[in-house]
Amino acid sequence: MNTFAFIFHPLDASDVARKYTFAKYLPPLVIEFGLKLMPPVVASKITGIKSATGASAEGWFVGCTLTARQMLQLDQDYVIRKIIRAAQKAEELGAKIIGLGAFTSVVGDAGITVSRHVSVGVTTGNSYTAGAGIQALELAARRMDIDMQTCSVAVIGATGSVGTACSHLLADKVSDLTLVARDRTRLEALQQQLCDQSGLKASITTDVSEATRRSDLVVTASSAAEPLINPGDLKKGAVVLDIARPRDVSKKVADEREDVLVIEGGVIKVPGDNVDFHFNFGFPPGLAFACMAETMILALEGTYESFSLGREYSAERVRRICALADKHGFKVAGLRSFERPVTDEQIESIRRKAGR
pTM of the predicted model, to two decimals? Predict the structure, then answer.
Protein backbone atom coordinates (compact mmCIF):
# COMPACT_ATOMS: atom_id res chain seq x y z
CA MET A 1 0.00 0.00 0.00
CA ASN A 2 1.19 3.52 -0.83
CA THR A 3 1.22 5.48 2.43
CA PHE A 4 1.64 9.11 3.44
CA ALA A 5 1.02 11.49 6.32
CA PHE A 6 0.14 15.15 6.40
CA ILE A 7 1.20 17.35 9.30
CA PHE A 8 -1.09 20.23 10.15
CA HIS A 9 -1.79 22.45 13.13
CA PRO A 10 -4.61 24.63 14.51
CA LEU A 11 -4.55 28.06 12.90
CA ASP A 12 -5.86 29.53 16.15
CA ALA A 13 -7.18 28.31 19.49
CA SER A 14 -10.74 27.95 18.17
CA ASP A 15 -9.58 25.28 15.70
CA VAL A 16 -8.75 22.93 18.58
CA ALA A 17 -12.47 22.37 19.09
CA ARG A 18 -12.61 20.53 15.75
CA LYS A 19 -10.92 17.63 17.54
CA TYR A 20 -11.68 18.35 21.21
CA THR A 21 -15.15 19.86 21.65
CA PHE A 22 -14.54 20.86 25.27
CA ALA A 23 -11.93 23.36 24.04
CA LYS A 24 -14.63 25.79 22.92
CA TYR A 25 -15.29 26.54 26.59
CA LEU A 26 -11.66 27.42 27.41
CA PRO A 27 -9.86 30.80 27.05
CA PRO A 28 -7.42 30.92 24.10
CA LEU A 29 -4.39 31.44 26.36
CA VAL A 30 -5.25 28.30 28.34
CA ILE A 31 -5.58 26.31 25.12
CA GLU A 32 -2.23 27.58 23.81
CA PHE A 33 -0.51 26.73 27.10
CA GLY A 34 -1.89 23.21 26.88
CA LEU A 35 -0.83 22.85 23.25
CA LYS A 36 2.79 23.62 24.15
CA LEU A 37 2.80 20.65 26.55
CA MET A 38 1.10 18.17 24.23
CA PRO A 39 2.91 15.59 22.07
CA PRO A 40 1.94 15.16 18.38
CA VAL A 41 -1.65 14.04 17.87
CA VAL A 42 -2.79 11.41 15.35
CA ALA A 43 -5.95 13.22 14.27
CA SER A 44 -7.38 10.68 11.80
CA LYS A 45 -6.82 7.95 9.22
CA ILE A 46 -7.30 8.92 5.55
CA THR A 47 -8.87 6.21 3.38
CA GLY A 48 -10.47 5.61 -0.02
CA ILE A 49 -7.97 7.41 -2.28
CA LYS A 50 -7.83 5.67 -5.66
CA SER A 51 -5.93 6.94 -8.70
CA ALA A 52 -7.24 6.94 -12.27
CA THR A 53 -4.42 4.45 -12.87
CA GLY A 54 -5.88 2.02 -10.31
CA ALA A 55 -3.27 2.69 -7.61
CA SER A 56 -4.48 3.25 -4.03
CA ALA A 57 -3.13 5.16 -1.06
CA GLU A 58 -3.95 5.72 2.58
CA GLY A 59 -2.52 8.04 5.17
CA TRP A 60 -2.86 9.97 8.41
CA PHE A 61 -3.41 13.50 9.60
CA VAL A 62 -0.87 14.22 12.34
CA GLY A 63 -1.31 17.36 14.41
CA CYS A 64 1.60 19.52 15.48
CA THR A 65 0.23 21.15 18.62
CA LEU A 66 0.95 24.84 18.14
CA THR A 67 -1.20 27.63 16.71
CA ALA A 68 -0.02 29.88 13.88
CA ARG A 69 0.66 32.67 16.36
CA GLN A 70 2.79 30.38 18.50
CA MET A 71 4.75 29.17 15.48
CA LEU A 72 5.68 32.75 14.63
CA GLN A 73 6.31 34.06 18.14
CA LEU A 74 7.90 31.17 20.06
CA ASP A 75 11.59 30.32 19.81
CA GLN A 76 12.13 28.92 16.30
CA ASP A 77 14.33 26.03 17.46
CA TYR A 78 11.56 24.95 19.82
CA VAL A 79 8.94 25.17 17.06
CA ILE A 80 11.07 23.15 14.65
CA ARG A 81 11.62 20.47 17.31
CA LYS A 82 7.83 20.19 17.68
CA ILE A 83 7.46 19.77 13.91
CA ILE A 84 10.23 17.15 13.84
CA ARG A 85 8.49 15.16 16.57
CA ALA A 86 5.28 15.21 14.52
CA ALA A 87 7.20 14.02 11.44
CA GLN A 88 8.82 11.22 13.44
CA LYS A 89 5.38 10.19 14.69
CA ALA A 90 4.17 10.05 11.09
CA GLU A 91 7.13 7.86 10.16
CA GLU A 92 6.34 5.52 13.08
CA LEU A 93 2.79 5.14 11.72
CA GLY A 94 4.24 3.86 8.44
CA ALA A 95 4.12 6.95 6.23
CA LYS A 96 6.55 6.77 3.31
CA ILE A 97 6.23 10.46 2.49
CA ILE A 98 5.24 13.33 4.78
CA GLY A 99 3.56 16.59 3.81
CA LEU A 100 4.03 19.78 5.82
CA GLY A 101 0.93 21.95 6.01
CA ALA A 102 0.25 25.61 6.88
CA PHE A 103 3.01 27.13 9.04
CA THR A 104 4.89 23.84 9.49
CA SER A 105 6.07 24.44 5.91
CA VAL A 106 7.04 28.08 6.55
CA VAL A 107 9.06 28.29 9.77
CA GLY A 108 12.81 27.81 9.76
CA ASP A 109 14.21 26.61 6.45
CA ALA A 110 10.86 25.44 5.02
CA GLY A 111 11.20 21.74 5.72
CA ILE A 112 14.89 21.10 5.05
CA THR A 113 15.83 20.56 8.71
CA VAL A 114 12.73 18.42 9.29
CA SER A 115 13.67 16.17 6.37
CA ARG A 116 17.09 15.52 7.91
CA HIS A 117 15.48 14.01 11.02
CA VAL A 118 13.37 11.37 9.25
CA SER A 119 14.30 8.64 6.78
CA VAL A 120 11.33 9.20 4.43
CA GLY A 121 10.50 11.92 1.90
CA VAL A 122 9.18 15.32 3.01
CA THR A 123 7.33 17.91 0.94
CA THR A 124 5.75 21.29 1.64
CA GLY A 125 3.24 20.96 -1.21
CA ASN A 126 4.28 24.36 -2.57
CA SER A 127 4.75 23.15 -6.14
CA TYR A 128 1.19 21.92 -6.61
CA THR A 129 -0.17 24.79 -4.50
CA ALA A 130 1.30 27.19 -7.06
CA GLY A 131 0.26 25.21 -10.13
CA ALA A 132 -3.30 24.51 -8.99
CA GLY A 133 -3.72 28.06 -7.71
CA ILE A 134 -2.96 29.57 -11.10
CA GLN A 135 -5.36 27.08 -12.73
CA ALA A 136 -8.09 28.32 -10.34
CA LEU A 137 -7.22 31.95 -11.10
CA GLU A 138 -7.50 31.34 -14.85
CA LEU A 139 -10.92 29.75 -14.34
CA ALA A 140 -12.10 32.67 -12.18
CA ALA A 141 -10.83 35.24 -14.71
CA ARG A 142 -12.78 33.53 -17.49
CA ARG A 143 -15.93 33.49 -15.36
CA MET A 144 -15.52 37.21 -14.62
CA ASP A 145 -14.71 38.12 -18.26
CA ILE A 146 -11.23 39.33 -17.39
CA ASP A 147 -8.61 39.02 -20.11
CA MET A 148 -5.37 37.94 -18.44
CA GLN A 149 -3.31 39.21 -21.37
CA THR A 150 -4.45 42.80 -20.95
CA CYS A 151 -5.39 43.19 -17.27
CA SER A 152 -3.25 44.29 -14.29
CA VAL A 153 -2.03 41.48 -12.01
CA ALA A 154 -0.33 41.65 -8.59
CA VAL A 155 1.41 38.97 -6.54
CA ILE A 156 1.57 39.64 -2.79
CA GLY A 157 4.35 37.79 -0.98
CA ALA A 158 6.07 37.42 -4.34
CA THR A 159 9.49 36.52 -2.95
CA GLY A 160 8.28 33.56 -0.86
CA SER A 161 8.48 30.07 -2.35
CA VAL A 162 4.81 29.90 -3.44
CA GLY A 163 4.75 33.56 -4.47
CA THR A 164 7.89 33.13 -6.57
CA ALA A 165 6.42 30.08 -8.27
CA CYS A 166 3.19 31.93 -9.04
CA SER A 167 5.15 34.92 -10.37
CA HIS A 168 7.08 32.71 -12.78
CA LEU A 169 3.90 30.98 -13.95
CA LEU A 170 2.11 34.30 -14.49
CA ALA A 171 5.04 35.88 -16.34
CA ASP A 172 4.22 33.68 -19.35
CA LYS A 173 0.51 34.58 -19.24
CA VAL A 174 0.21 38.32 -18.50
CA SER A 175 1.67 41.61 -19.71
CA ASP A 176 1.20 43.81 -16.59
CA LEU A 177 2.58 42.22 -13.42
CA THR A 178 3.38 43.86 -10.07
CA LEU A 179 5.50 42.04 -7.48
CA VAL A 180 4.91 42.89 -3.81
CA ALA A 181 7.01 41.94 -0.78
CA ARG A 182 8.78 43.55 2.18
CA ASP A 183 12.37 43.17 0.97
CA ARG A 184 13.09 45.41 -2.02
CA THR A 185 16.44 43.75 -2.75
CA ARG A 186 14.79 40.35 -3.11
CA LEU A 187 12.05 41.92 -5.24
CA GLU A 188 14.64 43.35 -7.60
CA ALA A 189 16.31 39.94 -7.91
CA LEU A 190 12.97 38.29 -8.77
CA GLN A 191 12.17 41.09 -11.22
CA GLN A 192 15.41 40.35 -13.07
CA GLN A 193 14.76 36.58 -13.08
CA LEU A 194 11.36 37.10 -14.70
CA CYS A 195 12.81 39.47 -17.27
CA ASP A 196 15.53 36.97 -18.17
CA GLN A 197 13.02 34.11 -18.39
CA SER A 198 10.12 35.68 -20.25
CA GLY A 199 11.13 39.20 -21.26
CA LEU A 200 8.45 40.64 -18.96
CA LYS A 201 9.50 43.77 -17.06
CA ALA A 202 7.45 43.47 -13.87
CA SER A 203 6.83 46.40 -11.54
CA ILE A 204 7.86 46.11 -7.88
CA THR A 205 6.58 47.72 -4.67
CA THR A 206 6.58 47.12 -0.93
CA ASP A 207 3.13 48.73 -0.58
CA VAL A 208 0.35 46.11 -0.61
CA SER A 209 -2.53 48.60 -0.90
CA GLU A 210 -0.89 50.48 -3.76
CA ALA A 211 -0.68 47.29 -5.80
CA THR A 212 -4.08 45.82 -4.97
CA ARG A 213 -6.06 49.00 -5.61
CA ARG A 214 -5.04 49.08 -9.26
CA SER A 215 -5.05 45.33 -10.02
CA ASP A 216 -7.76 43.30 -11.73
CA LEU A 217 -6.26 40.02 -10.52
CA VAL A 218 -4.44 39.55 -7.22
CA VAL A 219 -2.53 36.48 -6.04
CA THR A 220 -1.65 36.61 -2.35
CA ALA A 221 0.68 34.08 -0.78
CA SER A 222 2.36 35.78 2.15
CA SER A 223 3.28 34.19 5.48
CA ALA A 224 1.71 37.02 7.52
CA ALA A 225 -0.12 36.05 10.70
CA GLU A 226 -2.80 38.74 10.19
CA PRO A 227 -4.82 39.74 7.09
CA LEU A 228 -3.06 42.10 4.67
CA ILE A 229 -6.01 42.96 2.40
CA ASN A 230 -9.02 44.86 3.71
CA PRO A 231 -12.26 45.99 2.03
CA GLY A 232 -10.87 49.33 0.84
CA ASP A 233 -7.82 47.76 -0.77
CA LEU A 234 -9.47 46.22 -3.83
CA LYS A 235 -10.50 47.46 -7.25
CA LYS A 236 -14.13 47.05 -8.29
CA GLY A 237 -14.61 43.72 -10.10
CA ALA A 238 -11.26 42.31 -8.93
CA VAL A 239 -10.54 38.61 -8.47
CA VAL A 240 -8.31 37.68 -5.54
CA LEU A 241 -6.64 34.28 -5.25
CA ASP A 242 -5.79 33.83 -1.55
CA ILE A 243 -3.34 30.94 -1.24
CA ALA A 244 -2.05 31.97 2.17
CA ARG A 245 -2.93 30.15 5.38
CA PRO A 246 -3.86 31.95 7.61
CA ARG A 247 -5.72 34.04 5.07
CA ASP A 248 -4.27 37.25 3.68
CA VAL A 249 -7.75 38.56 2.85
CA SER A 250 -9.82 39.84 5.75
CA LYS A 251 -13.21 38.22 6.26
CA LYS A 252 -14.60 41.76 6.13
CA VAL A 253 -13.99 41.73 2.37
CA ALA A 254 -16.61 39.00 1.97
CA ASP A 255 -19.04 40.94 4.17
CA GLU A 256 -18.54 44.42 2.69
CA ARG A 257 -17.39 43.98 -0.94
CA GLU A 258 -20.07 42.32 -3.02
CA ASP A 259 -18.37 43.54 -6.20
CA VAL A 260 -15.18 41.44 -5.87
CA LEU A 261 -14.52 37.70 -6.03
CA VAL A 262 -12.19 36.13 -3.46
CA ILE A 263 -11.27 32.51 -4.12
CA GLU A 264 -9.19 29.96 -2.25
CA GLY A 265 -6.29 28.59 -4.23
CA GLY A 266 -5.76 24.94 -4.78
CA VAL A 267 -9.01 23.35 -3.59
CA ILE A 268 -8.64 19.92 -5.16
CA LYS A 269 -10.99 17.00 -5.85
CA VAL A 270 -9.19 13.87 -4.67
CA PRO A 271 -9.82 10.76 -6.86
CA GLY A 272 -11.74 7.83 -5.40
CA ASP A 273 -15.42 7.07 -4.85
CA ASN A 274 -15.07 6.65 -1.09
CA VAL A 275 -12.45 9.21 -0.05
CA ASP A 276 -12.79 9.86 3.67
CA PHE A 277 -10.46 12.07 5.73
CA HIS A 278 -12.30 11.23 8.97
CA PHE A 279 -11.64 14.79 10.04
CA ASN A 280 -13.48 18.07 9.48
CA PHE A 281 -11.14 20.79 8.22
CA GLY A 282 -13.94 22.82 6.63
CA PHE A 283 -14.27 21.19 3.19
CA PRO A 284 -16.95 18.85 1.82
CA PRO A 285 -15.98 15.15 1.52
CA GLY A 286 -13.30 14.42 -1.05
CA LEU A 287 -11.89 17.95 -1.30
CA ALA A 288 -8.43 18.93 -0.05
CA PHE A 289 -5.92 21.75 -0.17
CA ALA A 290 -3.35 21.44 -2.95
CA CYS A 291 -0.52 21.06 -0.43
CA MET A 292 -2.31 17.98 0.94
CA ALA A 293 -2.96 16.74 -2.58
CA GLU A 294 0.72 16.97 -3.53
CA THR A 295 1.57 14.49 -0.76
CA MET A 296 -1.15 12.12 -1.96
CA ILE A 297 -0.04 12.42 -5.60
CA LEU A 298 3.54 11.51 -4.72
CA ALA A 299 2.35 8.55 -2.67
CA LEU A 300 0.19 7.24 -5.53
CA GLU A 301 3.11 7.63 -7.91
CA GLY A 302 5.40 5.81 -5.46
CA THR A 303 7.73 8.83 -5.50
CA TYR A 304 8.96 8.87 -1.93
CA GLU A 305 11.59 11.55 -2.39
CA SER A 306 11.66 14.96 -0.75
CA PHE A 307 9.92 17.02 -3.42
CA SER A 308 9.11 20.64 -2.52
CA LEU A 309 11.54 21.84 0.15
CA GLY A 310 13.17 25.13 1.01
CA ARG A 311 12.39 28.45 -0.63
CA GLU A 312 13.75 27.93 -4.12
CA TYR A 313 11.38 27.80 -7.10
CA SER A 314 11.62 25.14 -9.80
CA ALA A 315 9.52 25.51 -12.94
CA GLU A 316 10.30 21.90 -13.85
CA ARG A 317 9.00 20.69 -10.49
CA VAL A 318 5.69 22.57 -10.84
CA ARG A 319 5.19 21.19 -14.35
CA ARG A 320 6.04 17.69 -13.12
CA ILE A 321 3.59 17.68 -10.19
CA CYS A 322 0.79 19.14 -12.35
CA ALA A 323 1.37 16.39 -14.92
CA LEU A 324 1.24 13.74 -12.18
CA ALA A 325 -1.96 15.30 -10.83
CA ASP A 326 -3.59 14.91 -14.25
CA LYS A 327 -2.31 11.35 -14.52
CA HIS A 328 -3.84 10.29 -11.22
CA GLY A 329 -7.11 12.23 -11.57
CA PHE A 330 -6.68 15.22 -9.25
CA LYS A 331 -8.62 18.27 -10.47
CA VAL A 332 -9.31 21.84 -9.38
CA ALA A 333 -12.80 21.56 -7.90
CA GLY A 334 -14.43 24.67 -9.29
CA LEU A 335 -14.17 27.83 -7.20
CA ARG A 336 -14.52 28.25 -3.46
CA SER A 337 -14.66 31.38 -1.33
CA PHE A 338 -14.19 31.39 2.44
CA GLU A 339 -14.73 27.62 2.58
CA ARG A 340 -17.96 27.69 0.54
CA PRO A 341 -18.57 26.80 -3.12
CA VAL A 342 -19.02 29.75 -5.47
CA THR A 343 -22.27 29.35 -7.40
CA ASP A 344 -23.15 30.61 -10.87
CA GLU A 345 -25.63 32.97 -9.24
CA GLN A 346 -22.91 34.47 -7.04
CA ILE A 347 -20.65 35.02 -10.04
CA GLU A 348 -23.46 36.75 -11.91
CA SER A 349 -24.25 38.93 -8.88
CA ILE A 350 -20.60 40.00 -8.52
CA ARG A 351 -20.35 40.73 -12.25
CA ARG A 352 -23.51 42.85 -12.10
CA LYS A 353 -22.38 44.84 -9.04
CA ALA A 354 -18.99 45.36 -10.66
CA GLY A 355 -20.69 46.81 -13.74
CA ARG A 356 -19.85 43.95 -16.09
Answer: 0.85
